[in-house]
Amino acid sequence: MSSPSKIKSDWDFWLNYPNNLQKPENHQPIIHPSYYYIYNCETNEILFTSDSFEKILGYTKDDYSFIEIMTFLHPEDVKYVMECERKAIEFTEKLSVSELNRFITTYTYRVKTAYGHYIRLKQSYQALEVNELGHMNRAIVFHELIDYHQQREKDDFKIFDRQSNQYVHAENRFNLTKREKEIFELIKKGHTSIEISEMLHLSKLTVDTHRKNILSKTNSRSFMILNHQSN
Predict the structure, then answer these.
(1) What is the mean pLDDT of residues 147-174?
(2) CATH number at residue 221
(3) Which residue, 181, 193, 195, is CA-closest to 230?
(4) Within this chain, do residues 136 and 194 fall inside the same structural domain, yes or no?
(5) Is 130 found in the same domain as 220?
(6) Which of 3-17, 100-114, 196-210, 215-229 has the lowest average pLDDT?
């Protein structure tokens, strides 16, 4: 794993240039207070924090683990956070080892600081290190402060694909179209392009075009590899 100092130099830019910089009429960017930390997913420990972590929260990294986070959550957000994490786990379990650091999971919740008041955070995290079993071993977690009074959508859980630079549905991580998913399922069952064209009343050229699009979206070299990864 990279040393804390290396991680600090690599990721401090995010504190000055968060993902959702807003530019008011005078075109001066508004920098939202934020911090990040390195999280050990196996031991539920925080290994390293940015300098602004303690300043914003009032806690040190030794005060903050997954167990403590649950006690700091706003009571009305506990169920929502658990549901978001359940969806995140279900999503990552479908990924191959090479895909784990491709996606960023985001959602918002409220947490109580050591100063005695609640703040609203936008959490974004991604895999930083994967173990030999293909599970997320360490993650880098970003927290950005947002307007406390801002109403959260009923469900603001999102997954961002860094490769395609867009958000994806948890159930459709490659943003395949309805037709592409249909063809992919038939390919997994062993059907050839000619057979698929007859079954779906499409030309073989159209089916082959869909096949190419599926491989491109999934960043796969062949359907043999893709079939193995999707099982």
Answers:
(1) 80
(2) 1.10.10.10
(3) 181
(4) no
(5) no
(6) 3-17
Q: Is residue 173 part of a domain?
A: no
Higher pLDDT, 217 or 80: 80
pTM higher than 0.85 for the full model? Answer: no
pLDDT tens column, 167-185: 776 656 677 788 988 888 8
DSSP per-residue codes, the chain: ---HHHHHHHHTHHHHS-TT-B--TT-PPB---EEEEEEETTTTEEEEE-THHHHHHS--GGG-SHHHHHHHB-GGGHHHHHHHHHHHHHHHTTS-GGGTTTEEEEEEEEEE-TTS-EEEEEEEEEEEEE-TTS-EEEEEEEEEEE-TTSPPPS---EEEETTTTEEEBTTBTT---HHHHHHHHHHHTT--HHHHHHHHT--HHHHHHHHHHHHHHHT-S-HHHHHHHH-
Structural domain total, the chain: 2
Q: What is the pLDDT of residues 116-128, one digit of tens each?
A: 999 999 999 999 9
Is 128 found in the same domain as 67? yes
127 and 42 inside one domain: yes
Residue 94 lies in a domain: yes
CATH number where 151 lies: 3.30.450.20
In terms of residue numbers, what domain contains 145?
4-168
